[in-house]
């Protein structure tokens, strides 16, 4: 008899063309520009995208001056790279065109009260804010990420890249969602996904393209994504493609966007806790950003070393104080030879986790085309991409040798 047991978990992903992601990418394009020109730049800029308007607010401190015209060019270049370049077959009423964009810059200087605690006379960097961050890793996929968000990202990337290269058919404001069936709660707890249960893809199509043609096109992209054959069976997966039957109008003309609204998309798909703040729009001294990267890196070493099937690492900071106020490891009962108390102690004793240590470890003050760009990180997700510096498995042997 067929096993009817189910235990389902779902994650969603949005493409760079989603208005919230547009805001994140613009904000991190600012971070890239200022840090590349002056590595000591301090940036905390927020972006609001609504209709044809882009509003940039927040605080910066940099020896590099970017004029309002410079910010406007940066915004339009970012939107064009995302896919809003005016070359699609969508009208100016259906999606955003760069020629129509109005940019308003409302940036202030960073408070000296914050700065005196961050840039310390000793050369140490104090945390740019208080807060909590969580890193996570799991044996569910090769990249040590949860299965649902990994497969949702694969689908989103596939459809988005097709849209970029077929502007006469699809737009770039795309959402995907994957539900994974673990069969039982025990399998869920032990990182044993069984199959993809449901797939949802919503992608804008040009006016006049029949929904049957849209669904056939996107179904072909789903089948060609490279989802594991052990997990994806087209004939036994529930698939919803543009389920309302029409999706033409899109972009910020029809849904506003704000930095920091896609924290779960950017991290672990809801599988693990998230910290109290966003990453995009902030320089490397802001521990909302650097603390996530450090926590993810530690969690990956633990899981890759075979010390647990999954691990959550929490780090907390006080503003202006370099060392974390706390570090803890929770393997959710999946540890092997070293328990959570011992793992937490090992991390605290061997890794300073100060903003300067994290910055130097991952080169966070040196974004470039050759290493990484924050705008690219905003586009692809803050964690889980193997080419990011904080995804390197470079201390696994040290973790394996914990006594």
UniProtKB/TrEMBL annotation:
Pfam family, one: S-AdoMet_synt_N
Molecular function as annotated in GO: ATP binding; metal ion binding; methionine adenosyltransferase activity
Xref: PROSITE patterns: ADOMET_SYNTHASE_1 (PS00376)
Domain S-adenosylmethionine synthetase central, first and last residues per copy: 124-247
Keywords, comma-separated and alphabetical: ATP-binding, Magnesium, Metal-binding, Nucleotide-binding, One-carbon metabolism, Potassium, Transferase
EC number: 2.5.1.6
Associated pathway: Amino-acid biosynthesis; S-adenosyl-L-methionine biosynthesis; S-adenosyl-L-methionine from L-methionine: step 1/1
Any GO BP annotation: S-adenosylmethionine biosynthetic process
Annotated ranges, domain S-adenosylmethionine synthetase N-terminal: 6-112
Domain S-adenosylmethionine synthetase C-terminal: 254-392
Superkingdom, natural source: Bacteria
Cofactor annotation: K(+); Mg(2+)
Matching InterPro entries: ADOMET_SYNTHASE_CS (IPR022631), S-AdoMet_synt_C (IPR022630), S-AdoMet_synt_central (IPR022629), S-AdoMet_synt_N (IPR022628), S-AdoMet_synthetase (IPR002133), S-AdoMet_synthetase_sfam (IPR022636)
Similarity comment text for this entry: Belongs to the AdoMet synthase family.
Alphabetized NCBIfam families for the sequence: metK
Name of the protein in question: Methionine adenosyltransferase
């Amino acid at each position: 008899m067929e096993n009817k047991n189910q235990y389902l978990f779902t994650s969603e992903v949005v493409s760079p063309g989603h208005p919230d992601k547009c805001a994140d990418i613009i904000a991190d394009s600012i971070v890239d520009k200022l840090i590349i020109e002056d590595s000591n730049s301090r940036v905390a800029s927020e972006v609001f995208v609504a209709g044809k308007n882009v509003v940039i607010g927040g605080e910066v401190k940099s020896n590099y001056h970017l004029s309002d015209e410079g910010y406007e060019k940066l915004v339009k270049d970012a939107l064009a790279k995302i896919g809003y370049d005016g070359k699609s077959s969508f009208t100016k009423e259906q999606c955003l065109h760069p020629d129509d964009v109005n940019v308003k810059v409302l940036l202030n200087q960073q408070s000296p009260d914050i700065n005196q605690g961050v840039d310390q006379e000793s050369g140490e960097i104090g945390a740019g804010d208080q807060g909590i961050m969580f890193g996570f890793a799991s044996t569910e996929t090769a990249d040590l990420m949860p299965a649902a968000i990994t497969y949702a990202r694969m689908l989103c990337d596939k459809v988005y890249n097709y849209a970029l290269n077929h502007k006469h058919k699809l737009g770039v404001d795309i959402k995907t969602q994957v539900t994974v069936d673990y069969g039982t709660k025990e399998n869920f707890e032990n990182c044993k996904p069984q199959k993809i249960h449901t797939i949802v893809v919503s992608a804008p199509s040009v006016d006049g393209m029949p929904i049957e043609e849209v669904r056939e096109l996107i179904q072909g992209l789903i089948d060609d994504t490279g989802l594991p054959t052990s997990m994806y069976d087209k004939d036994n997966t529930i698939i919803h493609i543009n389920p309302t039957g029409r999706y033409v109008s899109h972009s910020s003309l029809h849904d506003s966007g704000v930095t920091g609204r896609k924290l779960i998309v950017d991290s672990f798909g809801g599988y693990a806790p998230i910290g109290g703040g966003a990453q995009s729009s902030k320089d490397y001294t802001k521990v909302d950003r650097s603390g996530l990267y450090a926590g993810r890196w530690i969690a990956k070493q633990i899981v890759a070393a075979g010390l647990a099937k999954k691990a959550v690492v929490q780090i907390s900071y006080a503003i202006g104080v370099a060392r974390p106020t706390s570090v803890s490891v929770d393997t959710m009962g999946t540890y092997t030879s070293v328990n959570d108390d011992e793992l937490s102690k090992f991390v605290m004793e061997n890794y300073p986790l100060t903003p300067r240590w994290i910055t130097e470890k991952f080169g966070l003050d040196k974004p470039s085309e050759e290493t990484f760009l924050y705008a690219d990180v905003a586009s692809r997700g803050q964690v889980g991409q193997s080419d990011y510096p904080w995804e390197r498995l470079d201390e696994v042997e040290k973790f394996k040798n914990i006594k």
